[in-house]
Design a protein that fits this description.
Elements (H helix, E strand, L loop, with lengths): L9 H14 L3 H8 L3 H14 L18 H35 L2 H9 L1
């Protein structure tokens, strides 16, 4: 049996992976639409997730120590915003709502403690 190694060019592989990643469609569905073996597409997606490329087994270029890639920086900023919003909400609950709850029932203290 002949080998089909390299039958798909890099642009096709990257495009197929992009369809899976960006649309969230299942790999078997995309594979069927493109006429590719689902196992092949799965390996391209796995390689992309590990190395940042569907065509290379080498890891994405490392950034200098202490520097983040663009995707990592965006995720870090998103997480910082979420944390700041949650902390703000906790402070608001402690300041505005906690005294009223404490007067009416003692369970509010445990609720505020759980939010931390």
């Amino acid at each position: 049996m002949g080998s089909k190694q390299g039958a798909y060019d890099a642009e096709f592989r990257e495009g197929a992976v992009r369809i899976v990643i960006e649309t969230g469609k299942p790999i078997p569905e995309v594979a069927e639409e493109l006429g590719v073996n689902p196992g092949t597409l799965h390996s391209w997606v796995s390689r992309w997730r590990r190395h940042g490329s569907a065509t290379s087994d080498r890891p994405a270029e490392a950034t200098p120590a202490g520097q983040l890639r663009e995707a990592e920086r965006a995720e870090l900023e998103r997480l910082r915003r979420e944390t700041a919003e949650k902390n703000k909400r906790i402070r608001e609950l402690e300041r505005d709502d906690a005294p009223m709850f404490v007067k009416s029932s003692g369970w509010a203290l445990s609720l505020v403690a759980e939010l931390r």
